[in-house]
Amino acid sequence: MKIGFIGLGIMGGSMAANLGKAGHAVQSFDLNGKGSCKSAREASDGAEVVFTSLPGPAEVESVAKDISAPVWFDLSTNSPKRIRALHQSLKGTQLLDAPVSGGPTGAKSGKLAIWVGGDRATYDKYLPVLRAIGDQPYYVGAIGAGTVAKLVHNCATFTVQAALAEVFTLGVKAGVDSASLFRAVRQGASGRRRTFDRLPDHFLIGAYDPPEFTTRLAHKDVSLAVELAHEVGVPMEIGEIALRELGEAMKRGWSERDCRVPMTLQEERAGVSVKVSESAMRDAMKE
Questions:
Q1: In sequence order, which residues have a C-beta less than 8 Å from that of residue 82 and are 6 or more positions away?
Q2: If you count Cβ atoms within 10 Å of the first and of the last residue's Cβ in the chain, which end, N or C, has fewer?
Q3: Model-level pTM?
């Protein structure tokens, strides 16, 4: 297949190379002038499908006028609002958002998640091509859905990263060396499971009774951790937020409900329910 590829940075260069290794004829261009073509328009000319892997929304929009292929997958991390607007404005080109996750190592090895939003039939048709880029392509939903999934994933990643930095500084300043602390926490309940795999047990199915671990005990434990932080002089901004949430749950009379029930406070604030049926959750876990 003749494929246009625009954006040959640390991620795009490897993804374009993997398409070539899969036997496709790749017409490539980078905004800094690299590639087999002299322009984005030349990279798109005659291609059945075009992929873009660019720094952000502005760069994606800057090449939109040059895309002449019937199908365009944007692998960039974009804005859902702007990708939907761009989708509406295009004539003769089917745009799908398809941000990736796996980093430079995954881009080289082909071990990437590709979260796709857009026309389902187009996704199905080009699934073999997507598999040449990443081993886990997944159709999320309508245009913009893939980008929403990517932003949720990355925001969660960096929020957890900030929380881990906070608690590890607490542990080390309280007298435990980093390696020993790391080995210890990996053996705990959270350490033994992938971050998102704990969500289906309670939050996503809305099951907080009977408790696996009560809100009362969670409030006690976080109170003790924050108390320790004050004693040793470690700021705990994220820990304080967690304590406030648990405290509000206690005020609501939820002390003997599962410690995940404070998560419903955010549902109230956001005005949305995330609850899904247990059968739907089982199906999602199989994937």
A1: 57, 60, 61
A2: C
A3: 0.93
